[in-house]
Amino acid sequence: MAIDFDVRKLPEYLEFDTMHIAKAKARQKAFWAGEKIDYPLYFIGGTLTPEQETIPNPNYQELYNSPELMLCSEIRQACAFANGKSDAVPSIRVNMGCGITMSCLGLAQETFPDKMPWLKEHMNKEQISRLTPDDIKIQGDFARGLEIIHFYKEIMGDSIAIFVMDTQGPFDLAHLLMGDDLFLELYDDPAFVHHLMNLMLELGTKTIRWMKDAIGEPCTSCYYDKSIYSENYGIRICEDTTTLLGDAQIREFAVPYSQKLAQRFGGAFCHYCGRNDLLTMAQLEIPEFKTINFGLIPGKLYDHDFYQEMERVEKAVKVYRGWWPVLPDESYHDYLKRMHYFAVKGIQTPCLEMDSAGKFKTVEEIGEYWKSL
Is the model's pLDDT at 264 over the cut of 80? Predict the structure, then answer.
């Protein structure tokens, strides 16, 4: 897809304060290693400069089909984090959806202009039963994704870090591969499900290593999510489908395989959308899971009890990384004090925002207040 924008000039649009980013990277490295830092980590995005606003802003389908537009979209988001002047370490990725690794087994995603790609074709039990790790190959859109990583590196050089394409946990991968039939097999044929889970563990391991090799990133460290840098864990694991399971199923079919995946990369940052306290408790028991995050669903933003979750995280000696909503009738000053109380304990790294910032007019004002607490 031809575009009327010279992507080779994108490094000129970054306008990064390199000294500030180097400090943020050092602070994150120290924090994730358990060292004491002068004030708690926080993350916030700023606004784009007028020049950065001229970078194309494609829809999901356009960016999937164009490496140039995908890079433009990623640079816009990274610039917003850099302009926030927080502890964010900007980074970019090849953004091809949560089903991208299924390409390595020959499946393809559908794309849409208004939402992320999604996998609508699956394999049946008979097909999966015949699969072995040798069937996992670099092919299809995953192969194209690796090529785009090299394209990013060619255009951006060392001006910005690259992180891996979407990394799901083994149970999420199993659901992507088999679809909803998977849930019946948990009861009807557990041995088959363990075969599938071992296969998905190998799929996750191989694809992450292939991506890290293309990027040039060590297995046990990572950039992630336009903002994270850590040398204390190497991957993000997503457990969205696992939220649908009960405790026994979580502990037999999901968490053990995610733990093995985390072990192969020096630990993991774990995410899931929604709420499943049984899953949270199981995750908090795993030494290799360094930090957790909940995707708070619109309309159910207060489903998680903030204080209860912080108590759990503190007891488990973990870190919560992510955004929490402002409580009804809570000023943003009080909100920041609430976030800071737990951040200074080293058990959370909050993601802040300007949308609910009340009397604060700029990200700089928020940052100054945060440091003054």
Answer: yes
